Amino acid sequence: MTTPGHRFTASKESDSPPACQRILVIKPSSLGDVVHALPAVAALRAGLPDAHIAWLVNTEWAPLLEGNPHINEIIPFPRRNFRGLFGLWKAYQWGRQALRPRGLDLVVDFQGLARSGLICLAAGARRVLGFREAREGAAFFYTEKMAGKEGDAPVHAVDRYLKLAEAAGGKVEPPAVFSLPEGGPPPDLTEKESAFLAAPFTLLHPFSRGAGKSLSLGEVEAFCSESPLPVCVVGVGTEPPLALPETCLDLRGRTSLTQLLWLMRRAAWTVSVDSGPMHMAAGVTDRLLSIHTWTDPLMVGPYRREAWIYREGKIRRVGDLKPGDFPERRKDRHRPVSGPLLPQGAMSQLLAHIEQHRG
Fold first, then answer.
1. Distance between CA 124 and CA 100 in Å, rounded?
2. Are residues 204 and 230 in the same domain?
3. Is this structure's pTM higher than 0.85?
4. In a domain, 183, yes or no
5. Which has the higher per-residue pLDDT, 152 or 20?
6. 39 and 138: one domain?
7. For residue 310, what are the contacts with CB-CB under 8 A and spacing of at least 6?
8. Distances in Å between the alpha carbon of 51 and those of 73, 103, 284, 337?
9. pLDDT tens, 211-221?
10. How many CB atoms lie within 10 A of CB 82?
């Protein structure tokens, strides 16, 4: 699956890196960041067509990489096994046992944290490439470092990862490639639910783990009641309970990642708060409206130029955004939200947009 080129421009001049036969990509999490790294790994494959490319990813996100034509191997990383005081040491030991015997030529660390840095060390590759601004001391373990951005202009995560891939020998050309599984329908659908999904519907993902990002129950119920199209609500878990009209379908807690992709591809529109599933949708459809409260959509919004974002009472197409339009307001993420997340009238604005562009 491809999307129109965004803001990345490949370098005209670069030193040719040594030939690599066995490459390890480290990008274990989070959900949205794994999606962001897909074009970079596609660029690695384009520039190094004969290399064996393995991707180390958290076990829970591994289904997103199934069938990916740009990688040879998925290495599930059991992140939950490495918690607590000795978690970093256990992760290092795991890396020595699981990775060092592979004789790696190159490790590309897209994660840039202490744990991924230790895994780079454990892997024993002769070349380790990562961002100069990596956190928690991860850059100490790199043999080669590069800047992820220059100046103060916002840079989307996809573009940062593409720069790192190019430095590793990747070939970066638009359009960016998001190879995500086709997926399939949830297996436990009733006949009525299957008929619901066969007709046009809006997919709503209203809740996020991130602070200050989730819609209130009242906003979700209002959206579903007033929507011009039937609404399918998705998310993790079945709490809190929702009072939804009969024209809506609640599939929270009933979809896997690949089943969610299947729904996103079939939805007339996907409306999502700023979250990992929003970036999944951005990988497969232009018919996306992403709701932002304090984050800068140029940095963490949908990558597709034809997608849409909402912030501060305005709905804008991604391709029309300019630096400084919606600067990050990180201090607002911990602002208590006891009632609606969005200002009065915002829900009607979102629904009017969907009605206007539903064709």
1. 6
2. yes
3. yes
4. no
5. 152
6. yes
7. 289, 290, 291, 292, 342, 346, 349, 350
8. 11, 13, 27, 49
9. 788 999 999 99
10. 17
